[in-house]
Write a structure and sequence with these properties.
The chain is α/β, with parallel strands linked by helices. The protein has one domain. Helices cover 14% and strands 19% of the residues. The protein is built from five helices and 17 strands. It starts with a helix and ends in an 18-residue tail after the last strand. The relative contact order is 0.20.
Length: 350
């Protein structure tokens, strides 16, 4: 009679070898609580090398298996998807909140959220936090005196300042920031992110965004569209949000308790059956990212405003091709199965 134990072990080893050859190793991860299923199952996941993460200035913008860089095209639709979409605006069209030139005409306000790259040797300066010092990462920060400000130097709205230290791959973000005469800066609050890690902010802490999330990883950039692929989720805003937040968000900014309103951190995607073939090639790159990586609700603002970096190479008419796409062309996904830890941005890869 054959040795059953030995034979079984050989079969297991053979299967593991085959799995490695095809590019993945099967593992088991306890499922997280989900509104659509039990949290007592063990779900098979596949850990694969995956697509390289997006890069800026030689820095990975978080690891490839971070939630920002994880596809959501295979996730289930959230059971409350239709209600969330309705409260954001089912019949409201998308709006590219970025482009070339300035708005309004004649102003010094570039269209979008700018950022600046600095070397690791950039001098550190004092940052004075005037609104939420207790929820701010302490300075000093490597913010140059001429760092670009959202809305321009005379802007009166969010005045975000984003600084990427390419020598250390650290991201520094400020909200409502003003340069001071002595080279220091004053801001409502600030956040620092190690782009080599999956660390999230302490739960309940804001950031330069109301959701407690970083801004730069969710911006559409001209160079990635020109390359033919966007490999990350994209930031957007909604007029009213619920007084809760869902992973990976860390903060909310509302008094609304109606559960039909979207929580901060909500993940959505453009429906798979939405035909993008009639759009320009550049817009198809953006719309495919909407399908594959989706959107993340990051702040209160106008409905379906899509965030990006100002750039003189954008064709504003081309960007406004997305105006015909309305909220009801999207669906909310249940991304709870991707969470490995509530305090980490690392995501199980679908």
């Amino acid at each position: 009679m054959p040795n059953v134990t030995t034979k079984s072990a050989r079969i297991v080893i053979l299967l593991l070898i085959i799995g490695a050859i095809v590019g993945g190793t099967a593992v088991y991860q306890r499922a997280t609580a989900s509104p659509t299923g039990s949290n007592n199952l063990y779900l098979p996941l596949t850990v694969k090398p995956g697509t390289p993460p997006p890069q800026i200035g030689g820095c990975d913008i978080f690891p490839g298996d971070n939630i920002w860089n994880t596809p959501v095209d295979s996730l289930p639709v959230h059971p409350n998807s239709a209600n969330y979409i309705n409260t954001i605006g089912a019949n409201t069209g998308l709006h590219p909140d970025f482009g070339s030139g300035v708005w309004p005409p004649g102003s010094n306000s570039p269209i979008g959220i700018p950022y600046v790259e600095v070397p690791g040797s950039q001098p550190l300066v004092t940052i004075t936090f005037v609104n939420w010092p207790g929820e701010s990462d302490p300075g000093p920060y490597p913010v140059p005196p001429n760092a670009p400000i959202e809305g321009g130097p005379d802007g009166t709205d969010d005045r975000h300042v984003l600084v990427l230290d390419t020598g250390n791959c650290m991201l520094y973000e400020l909200f409502d920031a003003y340069p001071q005469g002595n080279g220091s800066w004053e801001a409502a609050n600030g956040a620092v992110y190690d782009l080599n890690s999956h660390d999230l902010r302490p739960d309940g802490w804001t950031s330069a965004d109301a959701a407690g999330l970083p801004i730069l990883p969710g911006l559409i950039r001209y160079d990635e569209v020109a390359s033919g692929e966007i490999r990350h989720a994209i930031r957007f805003t909604a007029p009213e949000t619920q007084a809760v937040h869902v992973w990976p968000a860390r903060h909310d900014a509302s008094n609304i308790t109606d559960t039909d309103y979207p929580p901060m951190g909500l993940r959505l995607r453009l429906r798979a059956d939405y035909d993008i073939s009639g759009f320009s090639p550049e817009m198809q790159v953006i719309l495919q990212a909407f399908k594959t990586y989706g959107l993340i609700l990051a702040d209160n603002g106008s409905a379906w405003y899509i965030s990006g970096v100002p750039d003189g190479r954008w064709d504003n008419d081309l960007l406004h091709e997305m105006d015909v796409i309305t909220g009801d062309n999207f669906e909310v996904v249940d991304s709870s199965s991707l969470m490995l830890s509530p305090n980490s941005g690392q995501a199980a890869q679908p």
